[in-house]
């Protein structure tokens, strides 16, 4: 039994994968809670689309792919911010036009760029097993930055999410706090894309928070549970990939989906939780947008 | 307002750019030139494009679909491809599901081209991959390559009976060149000791090469004849164990692919990563491997160099 | 330029010796105007409130009541002068607060302590104890751990009031706190407000319940873009005065209650003002 648990850790490649998966899952778990309560899920998708263009541009400019991805992520955040604030634009329509355009431009550029071959599988599903030391450094940096931000402004970020009006009344600059939050969310998305790819990003960013919401009543316990669930799923997923023929990314998301299903069913069977409580796990009930 | 101006500007820029770029198409090989009088032929893979040029000579204008940066297994056809096909007299595909995207393209593009399936008449190596009747990478076996050349010649003769004589002569000449290539490769690889005649590649593209030249393909990073697959932890473990137990000297990646996973596996197993095999495509202009024979020779050189170290 | 809460007001020159409430204005507003683009929401509004005053701001929908509060808080740009003595705490309309957010009643009240804690410090046991006491004060001591969303409208409103008290401000602003909530909750909130005023704090509350305002408030401010009337109930709640504000038919009944029909005009029809 112990052998069975220890076996993957004998591989340096797997050790890196475990660490990367844990860091990424932890990041997504915590920040995903903010994304969930702020109704920002579309932003994660938006960044996932535009990062493709950023990576190709980075290749053309001869800079590291991550830099290009990060720049486009920031651009997406600012653009989304501006669109949301302008009451004349319907966010859905604006995003619906902009995102496919930017993504399409990225794909077209890839096709036309000499010497650039991107593996479609990598873009869609990530390559967690190909984690390098550089990838780990990037993930650690993202974690440190996020931890710093939350240590300084964590409770204010929660306040702005819960009651923006009063936060402003108290004198907090809600717009600035928004940008800081979106900045680390963008960073997290870029880091996570390298690990689990486009298609699975939403699973890692929203799965654990949505599951944790069913179990927790206060924000920070929800964030901690979400991080725990994410890291647990990441580790379990990699074990699955080690023993069964499933890729790392898909295995992780499989575990996340099972987790959510189990928890949701358990709640149903135990009488739907505490009597008289009304909360929903879907983002629809939360204070929308920025 | 400032916001709407910025957004409109970005939208306009992106949409215009994308439209222009998309319209340009992704032809990396010869465009159909002249057009008058010549037989219009469209070939999917670069190997087939080369065969078609060798056999067709001046009578045939060859337009290619795939270029050195395109992955045949994952290719998305463009409007320019449809355009070329609709005006073609002959369309040459590899077959065996390597270029399955051609089916839809042919259906949509219309036109009255004669369709040549290059693997016709060739016994395929078996594969477990769903959707594949067999391993499609037949051209790496010189005997199969010669059969492909004959199939192309037959197709051209059907479209252009007047040129039959020319095509048959060119095909025979080219097949002799392939024989010469095959001898040269064999002698290059002779230097490799029997115990070292083992290959680990990115995806399972060299089965026919291995069979033809007595090299054992002991494992692949992507566990399939196609690149559209993902490697599991278990497969990584098994590959590392194989590399270690069989004393494989190196992992060979394909030219143009970023060898991320290969590097990690190689580090784990304590071997080198050799880049530069022409697996599914030929070389870009200026690489010295723009033609089939040169690419195969380049492969043999690289393999010999790594496995005799 | 509006000066936000925290700045001291201009003291009035004559100081009263024995009065428990300092006579200088706790809140002084001088010719304040607010415009959203082309639309003028507030025009040259001026008034002063002493410490311990409970002021009610009345007016039809769209009159600028919420805008006035925003101007006082400094969350909306305004011309003119605003001087507030001490910190300002705000109780927003219930609809602006997320109902499904994962937080319990105690957690909401503790949020009121954040401005005093600064960026890095986390709320401590002292903060939580104070929050618990404040919840007791509004009658929700036993619901400290209940999810905010599971409380009734009236209970949630009371929690928000407790949160405002946790800020320990000198000025308390409430936006329609009694609208649409149960009578016992209303009574509790009014009791808390009166206690605050007795302790010398200044309270400004917007409402559209004229009768209730007349009963509870020391001072009424009648607003419809401009300040139409400012004074005690008997001065403000007069047919001709109300007529100017509501631009509608006003019917006075026994001099204290009024019936207003706004249906004919561009303001959306309001509930009939407080016939009790």
What does this protein look like?
The complex is a heterotrimer of chains A (290), B (309) and C (276). Chain A is an all-alpha fold and 290 residues long. Chain A has a single domain, classed as ABC transporter involved in vitamin B12 uptake, BtuC (Orthogonal Bundle). Helices cover 78% and strands 0% of the residues of chain A. The longest helix of chain A is centred in the last third of the chain and has 42 residues, at 174-215. Chain A starts with a helix and ends in a 21-residue tail after the last helix. The model of chain A is unreliable at 273-290 (pLDDT under 50). Chain B has two domains: 39-186, 3-Layer(aba) Sandwich (Rossmann fold); 190-307, Rossmann fold (3-Layer(aba) Sandwich), CATH 3.40.50.1980. In chain B, 46% of the residues lie in helices and 14% in strands. Chain B has a four-stranded parallel beta sheet, with helices on both faces. In chain B, strands 6-5-7-8 form a four-stranded parallel beta sheet, sandwiched between helices. In chain B, helix 2 packs across helix 5 (142-159), helix 2 packs across helix 6 (164-190) and helix 5 packs antiparallel against helix 6. Chain B starts with a helix and ends with a helix. In chain B, 50% of the residues are buried. The model of chain B is unreliable at 22-35 (pLDDT under 50). Chain C has a single domain (22-259), classed as P-loop containing nucleotide triphosphate hydrolases (Rossmann fold, 3-Layer(aba) Sandwich), CATH 3.40.50. Chain C contains nine helices and eleven strands. Chain C has a six-stranded mixed beta sheet, with helices on both faces. In chain C, strand 1 (25-36) and strand 2 form a beta hairpin. In chain C, helix 2 (105-111) runs parallel beside helix 5 (153-166). Chain C is globular, with a radius of gyration of 19 Å. Chains A and B meet through helix 2, helix 4, helix 5, helix 6 and helix 10 of A and helix 1, helix 8 and helix 9 of B.
